[in-house]
């Protein structure tokens, strides 16, 4: 049997659609690699081998009947474990959802199955997607396949690690403040957050509803565009879902970047690690050589985004997480009355970071503090969006680092929430504005760890964003992206 684990999604789908590979063969290859290395990396909360083989067989049967198996025919995918999957445990890496089996699939999951993808498992995350390292998972952290003493980033760390390990060519994550792009940068994969409303959030377990978006992980920009095509588009089941959006992202990649105006955000270069700053400058140079017009732009308002996010996101989380009360879902710890049962359930079911966010969020929404914190944060949010929009009068896309540093060691920031929060300094502004952004592996930095460069675009500017991301990728240093060689890489 051929080993298909280092193929791109584009190549697998073409081979399966063309009858050169069966979907079952591809699924078995992925499941074998996972069986060998999952113990070292802990990418998954559950590996769904039977589901995967059944979905693969369904694709092979469609092909045998002469039907179109879809654009992702036979492509293995990992699903972040905050996406509802019918009859398959969905935990958000929290004890509070223990034993809960969703009665429905998220819209993105339904669309992936229609597109022919094969889901191999539910990937690990920081509990309720709150964190930047997966160390907040109730089920243990995922490891970075480049160096298992380092975090894969978070919160979608399991998805990023699964792609970087070559377990799957593509994965889904969710990005509320950077949870796709930051782990993508840490693991040497592509990771993209779409425009708010481009991808349905129906069946994504809510963290901060005005910020959450689902998006792709992949090894190449083309695969990210292909995956986004499969999951985007209007959905009546999500009231924030946009209508009449662009839906084609792979085709426009061929247009190149001649004439596009790129602005390098200088505010993001003052505190980043020097090798990361050099990477951004080199990427900007490569874009200029490829025909773009490159200039610098100062957008100091963006630096206030982090503070506003850590008021708005906890406020929304405190509201969203009030539904976990021991009555309807998952864990219940009994008490002498209902209020005590609620309290005991939450005390036992939520981890320390989730409790911190709920308390912070409840505080900033409380009478007497609302104006000073929550309302003020909303004003800063508007200021960030306006500042981006002013920059987009002069530029088609913006460029900057994804993270201030490369992947850090386990334990380095877990006892210092503020240091952990600062990992998202450069990713959060796009969430506040609702804009798309993508992280592309560009080079190796400190300790030989991958460095991601981030391309930002205005709302629904995905096509230009992908074109520029492809040009960044075309200039990337060899060996800076996954999949890594596991036998050597995993124990480095
Ligand atoms: N790390 C950020 C947080 O902890 C972002 C998380 C996310 O995007 N889900 O809130």
Describe the structure.
The protein has 492 residues and is α/β, with parallel strands linked by helices. The chain has a domain at 9-254 and 436-475: Amidase signature (AS) enzymes, CATH 3.90.1300.10. It is built from 16 helices and 11 strands. It has an 11-stranded mixed β-sheet, sandwiched between helices. Strand 2 (76-80), helix 4 (107-114) and strand 3 form a beta-alpha-beta unit. Helix 2 (23-41) packs antiparallel against helix 3 (49-64), helix 5 (157-164) runs parallel beside helix 6 (181-187) and helix 9 crosses helix 11. It is globular, with a radius of gyration of 21 Å. It starts with 8 loop residues before the first helix and ends with a helix. Mean pLDDT is 97; it is low at 488-492. The structure holds glutamine. Glutamine (GLN) binds at residues 129-132, 155, 174-179, 207, 313, 424.
| Helix and strand composition category | alpha/beta
Oligomer: single chain
Number of helices: 16
Radius of gyration: 21 Å
Instruction: Give the total of beta strands.
Output: 11
Share of residues in helices? 25-40%
Give the bound compounds.
glutamine
Q: Would you give the CATH topology of the domain at 9-254 and 436-475?
A: Amidase signature (AS) enzymes
What is the spatial order of strands in the main beta sheet?
Answer: 1-3-2-4-6-5-10-11-9-7-8
Give the distance, in angstroms, between the N- and C-terminal Cα atoms: 29 Å
Q: If classified by CATH, what would the architecture of the domain at 9-254 and 436-475 be?
A: Alpha-Beta Complex
Shape descriptor: globular
Main sheet summary: 11 strands, mixed
CATH class term of the domain at 9-254 and 436-475: Alpha Beta
CATH superfamily of the domain at 9-254 and 436-475: Amidase signature (AS) domain
Low-confidence stretches: 488-492
